[in-house]
Amino acid sequence: MNIYRLDPQQPLNLPPSIVTIGNFDGVHLGHQAMLAQLNQIAKYESLHRAVMIFEPQPLEFFLKHQAPPRVSNLREKIVALKDYGVDSVIIAKFDERFRNLTAQDFANILKHHLNAKILMLGDDFHFAKNREGNSDFLRQCGFEVHNLNTIDWAEQRVSSTRIRQVLQHGDFSQTKQLLGRPYRMQGRVLHGDKIGRTLDFPTINVALQRQKPCLHGIYAVEVQCLDSDIFQELIQQEQGIQGYSNNSLFGAAHVGTRPAIAQEQPEWRLEVHFPKLKADLYGRMMQVTFLHYLHGEKNYPSLEALKQGIQQDVQDLIVYRQTTSSPF
User: Each residue of 28-59: pLDDT tens digit?
Assistant: First the structure.
């Protein structure tokens, strides 16, 4: 799959394409239905399959830190789009210049830069300055436009907003139904402040690569290392607790801002503690699959109370692993 950064001054030289456009946050069942129809038409018309996404997402540009949390970061979107057969992903930088494009400017980009012949769009797709453009305008510009109605599950519309709400309630079973897969985050292990070591609970700090996550609390997770077999080697050495999948370790994860730790500027963290494991994992690319919500983030009155709280959480999550044959 090809990945392009859109440059309005430089055509991409794509072959004749069918194009769909949107945030694709989560690449959920509604997005997947769109991609399935795109694939079907592309095969029939012998067209290149392209997806245009925005970075940052428009609401992040307009609302800054008040924007809704992301279901997926850019890497996670691209991985999911590749899994559903997309040939090219075009990343459009959503900035002041892009937000001020006229509808005709946007249509010209689709025609001359993306070589779009057919467009696959949502039923309420609007674009350009003041949302002046829509599917009818694009038809007037000469594009063949197909609109897909929203997809329902359990008599409710499948949307990124609904998935955010479900995640914030810790319902990973329903999240899996809406996404068509378990909820996961991917990121590289970064150096942190190593406070966990001083509490006898060392953690890996997994880069979130998003302004704000949908989760907040303590979770059971399983973690896979995407760029090495190190977990398999550790399991063979009887280190750590094996997860439910091959080449995975079970862990206790914290997602939050760590209110019990004094900080000049609180920041969101994804930290994972692996019981019964000591290993150097810095720089590794990890995939964290969320299995079970234990409780929300707590503001402990002291570091000693925090240590006792972590100890109890880890014990509770180990019991969860020992008593749960399948998380979904």
Answer: 999 999 999 999 999 999 999 999 999 999 99
